[in-house]
């Protein structure tokens, strides 16, 4: 028995333990480390390179990022400004806003490397550099958080143990298509970035994403012509509203193609291609089936080319170079089978399979962060990019805080009279809702009798049915879900997003809004897992008991009293069967004598002697606006001497407490 205990102790001593292990010190890994450090958790970040952000040290090859860095928005609200800052990570340190590092709208990648280095050093994040984790496996243990520990081994055979594993390694393994002659293809990761190396050459590019067009843009002015081939048609980000599709900064080849300046785009399955090299070093494109039962090394003269049968075959001209620009995929090689880390299906097979809460489908306690987690919202939202996954990483941290440390999801309780204002405030400034549209939502949990509500920010809607378990918050009597959405049929590669009358301006037609706009779902009960699975196609949520669209706005400013606020308030009132208006003290006084039930504002404000001190200027404004009747003091002061009249009026104005709503909404305080 003693020998067994000694062996167990020795075994444990060979593993360095941490509660949380984070793989990768890229943007997602550093963002996770920040939240763990702020919460005082035991964690370590493993980075294979000597510095953070090693991906950006090489990519993009031509060094210009396509994430915008908007310096000016006309507003000083820091949360709002993050809507247009796609590079900053979240932190309390105002020095670590990316606008302090670059003034370029599309910054240089080297600036991102410097920014990430400062983020790690200034915040003193615990990153262990030059540590490449080469193997990850499980150790079953009933005492562990998830019923097992994660065992990690690095390149020096050092061993580590952790209770929860956060994978933030991104997608960095190049996608390669193997076909006859693929050995003649140059990869995006190694091809020359000096345009002079391509002077007078004819180039074929395999791929149709931003890396392909970035490469073409760099050599567009020096080549004979460039052809680009891919199995899918070009998808423009302004049509799909997906930032990962082709951005305008790189689409010069579309001009030269459509304006007939020799360059061109083709569609075809790359696996059906074959490349044959002639004696002069030229590369000829043929089809795989032409090479069946033939020896490709026997020479081009013995091989049938498509132009031998179809003399106007599109790619009949030989090429000097063929470049592969097919993007990247996740590295599954370091994970033991016991973790069951499986690739997704279909067009998300480059990402690992994960649940909507970013946890691996195969292993509890293993979470995927950053670009590698993009399968949750692929081609829908911004979860594969810094301006998206900085928020999903925070959401995962909040889920872990509740699961392992009993810290409920952060929330704030307000009286029901603040419901409309709370929603309007969030939809006008929240950056997480704005960037992760259709994925993250604000949740409003109604208290009993709808006298108050609890507000939770930026919760993953994919696990709405699990809200009570995931957040530690109860849903006693219904909820609202606030989310941002584009119009149902507005986005797509084949959509004309510039057609006449594309925008909706009238509140009664808000449900037809095309551009990004707030949508409020109301549920009398928390949706179930079954209801989540049966939700309509392309809907982020099941059918609600009631739904309200706030009409789209050209300025993305949803504060118009009649077009935005009034319809929202009436929707909320209908759902709650209550009056959410704010009233002056005179009105509450009148209601107390004429109604059996006072409106919430009067019960929670006037009756409790709460409100703003009145003034004659405010009263005069209310009278002129028709919000109050002009009951002059002479009506009940009679023949009081003028000087006594003035003193009494002044005294009343000092003593009177008039409950008022914010001035910007004053015009709506009295409506039918």
TrEMBL record:
Transmembrane segments: none annotated. GO terms for biological process: ERAD pathway. Keywords: Endoplasmic reticulum, FAD, Flavoprotein, Glycoprotein, Oxidoreductase, Signal. GO terms for cellular component: endoplasmic reticulum lumen. Its cofactor is FAD. Probable flavoprotein which may function in endoplasmic reticulum associated degradation (ERAD). May bind non-native proteins in the endoplasmic reticulum and target them to the ubiquitination machinery for subsequent degradation. Belongs to the FOXRED2 family. This is FAD-dependent oxidoreductase domain-containing protein 2.
